[in-house]
User: What shape does this take?
Amino acid sequence: MAEGTFRPTWLEVDLDALSANVALLRAIVAPASMCAVEKADGYGHGAEAVASAALQAGADWLAVAVVDEAIALREAGIAAPILLLSDPVADAAEAVVANRVTATVSSRATLEALASASARLGIRADVHLKVDTGMHRIGVAPEHLAGLARAALEASGVELCGVFTHLAVADGASEEDRAFTALQLARFDDSLHAVRELAERPLLGHAANSAAAIAYPGARYDLVRTGIAIYGEVPSQAVGDALAGAATGRRLQPVMSLRSRVVALRRLAAGERPSYGRVRPLPVGSTVATVPLGYADGLPRRYFAAGGEVLIGRRRRALAGVVTMDQIVVDCGPDDDVEVGDEVVVLGAQGDERITVSEWARVVGTIHHEVLTLIGARVPRIASSDAKALHDGGVPRASRGR
Assistant: This one.
């Protein structure tokens, strides 16, 4: 998919903020190491730039969801350990081994494919076993883990390096959620101990996502896998409360902002109904601004009906009609202050006002993760560690791309 070049819509990625988040989380989870999760193009931020920044800030590992994501990081020159978070399909085994990606293994079939690829290439295949402690998505059942571990230890060309699990409700606040997380961790304790006894050597153990890394000190083990938190967001209020207690006054900083510019203005009389469907009449005569960003860029069509707003001229402005594929129309009211070329903030800060990921998620009825990953590929990512460069009134062409 082509990325934007000339349309005045862009996504800003504040690498200083990301680095500060990594440093804060490292301090909280120490002495555990940190794995920065870069799946889904770095949660929509542009994986190559944010992976490099995370490693420079102290992350030890990276993690991805699909093989192609790992290959892209290797092709960008990143040499750090990369964990593939789910079993590769058999056809991808050779690419995994050739790119020295640590593979998740939860079946004998995966193990055999990796061992065969190792024999063909003459390169060792590093693997982590995934045990299903209650998420019930991928992973070997605890009762079958010992057999899989023995097979991995005996497989030629395969190095068993770790054991991990994933927690289903570590972000939850209810007693049931906390009890289930405790049950998962107890199951994982038993599983990790059993595999370490079979291996008779140290193996990495890891279970914590962002929520557990912050809220469950006992879940940190040797490594934590931080995704949403390094991008400045906490997955729930319960985790936010835990972070406030652990961070001694420091806070996670938002990393992403989504911006555009006014490209057209028209003065419309009260009662006019802009955009498809002519859904809502203007209550008074208003200036209506056209902004070149739509649902193909990740702004949900329901944002209008749900009461979503944008910032223009340091003020909140409601949409004047439904979100279309490539554009929105904004009700600027009876004011004549707005001009063509004015910056429009869909996500982020302008003056003292800010539209947060939490607000957007609440308005459209989703979670932080989906908001961050909705932004389409045709919106160029501008990653910078110079906050001033991100707000210099233009879209620097030299910084375009992912």
User: Anything to note?
Assistant: Residues 393-402 have pLDDT under 50 and may be disordered. The chain is about 30% helix and 20% strand.
